[in-house]
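User: Predict the structure for this protein chain, please.
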Amino acid sequence: MSKISPLAIIEDGATIGKNVEIGAYCFISKNTTIGDGTKIEQNSLIYGKTTIGKKNHIFSHAVIGSVPQDLKFAGEDVELIIGDNNKIREFTLINPGTKGGGGKTIIGSHNLLMGFVHVGHDVIIGNHCILANSATLAG
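Assistant: Here is the predicted structure, written as structure tokens:
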């Protein structure tokens, strides 16, 4: 059974797995898929065609899947894929890919992205990685 705050906004079309927790004032867009057992804490925003695997923990104020910070981006169909068992800490920003970079940003499984990390467009992160506070992987 999922635990979703009545103060969260989840657009029609979003796919929410089993035993998912979504805190107050979160926004989940219509093209998002959230895997079983994932916890999304208050004030986090998830946009676009974003797939989040199982048992991830997204801490407060994360912004995931918002449009790439690339002046050439013109609204193309792009994607963000996040694996399983990741910890994404407070104020982390993760952008999807761009047409020029293959269209996908991919984060593997069992990673720790500490506070204020930025994962830019078209980045690929493997498994078991740690990005320290304020680390930036630019697009």
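The first strand starts at residue 3 and ends at 4.
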